[in-house]
Specification:
By secondary structure, this protein is mainly α. The protein is built from eight helices and eight strands, in the order H-E-E-H-E-E-E-E-E-E-H-H-H-H-H-H. The strands form four sheets. Strands 1-2 form a two-stranded antiparallel sheet.
């Protein structure tokens, strides 16, 4: 049986083939970013300007139909960023008649963006996710796992969540949100090194504070 479209799932070659398939999807009016099967489009509209986003959505929908693909409107979101006192009144976007909800916060490749360009929503998401994983450390600590192994697990399962995408948001993070993130590492080290101060735990583990580590990662990326 011949297959008219599609790529094998679960293979290393699959994402490459998919990128080849979507390479000619180019919205005519706006900027866009594609990552495997995820695409984001952005548009800068001057005061009293007209939006071309709906036209680009129609183009994308037609392209998908022509290539035997189907967009999922339920996974699409519209994020409007404006600091004007009088907010512009644009028509709501839709895909094949299905309305796209306008949201105050949306995830782009795992980083939560807010319509006021602040990072509270993102920090809330990553600290909630990381805090749930502290239970893994407690269980392993009770079962006698060595401190060095616990530290490695912390770095892999918890710190990685707290630092994901940090070059994007670290430099504009207010102090209270930085402390909220740092508190997760403090809690983790109280589990791993229960009788040590935070500074002693950092020294024994060979770790930096999360703020210092984010700063180094950001500098490394931009250097």
């Amino acid at each position: 049986m011949s297959v008219g479209a599609g790529v094998p799932q679960g293979t290393k070659l699959g994402p490459v083939l998919f990128l080849v398939m979507v390479n000619d999807l180019i919205p005519p009016n706006n900027d866009y970013w594609k990552y495997v099967d995820d695409m984001s489009m952005s548009e800068v509209i001057s005061r009293n300007g007209v939006s071309n986003m709906q036209s680009d959505l129609d183009h994308t929908s037609s392209w998908a139909t022509d290539n035997y693909m189907k967009l999922n409107p339920t996974k699409c979101k519209e994020l409007r960023i404006s600091f004007l006192r009088q907010k512009p009144n644009f028509s709501h976007l839709h895909i094949d008649g299905a309305p796209i909800p306008t949201v105050e916060s949306a995830k782009v490749l795992g980083v939560s963006l807010q319509n006021d360009l602040k990072w509270k929503s993102h920090v809330d998401n990553i600290t909630t996710k990381a805090a749930k994983r502290l239970y893994i450390l407690r269980v392993l600590k009770r079962n006698g796992l060595h401190d060095d192994d616990l530290t490695s697990i912390f770095k892999i399962l918890i710190r990685s969540v707290l630092q994901y995408g940090c070059p994007v948001w670290h430099s504009s993070l207010p102090a209270y949100l930085s402390r909220k993130i740092e508190n997760i590492q403090r809690r983790a080290f109280r589990i791993i090194y229960p009788f040590k101060s935070y500074s002693d735990a950092l020294s024994m583990s060979g770790c930096l504070s999360l703020a210092e580590n984010r700063h180094q990662l950001s500098q490394k990326l931009l250097s």
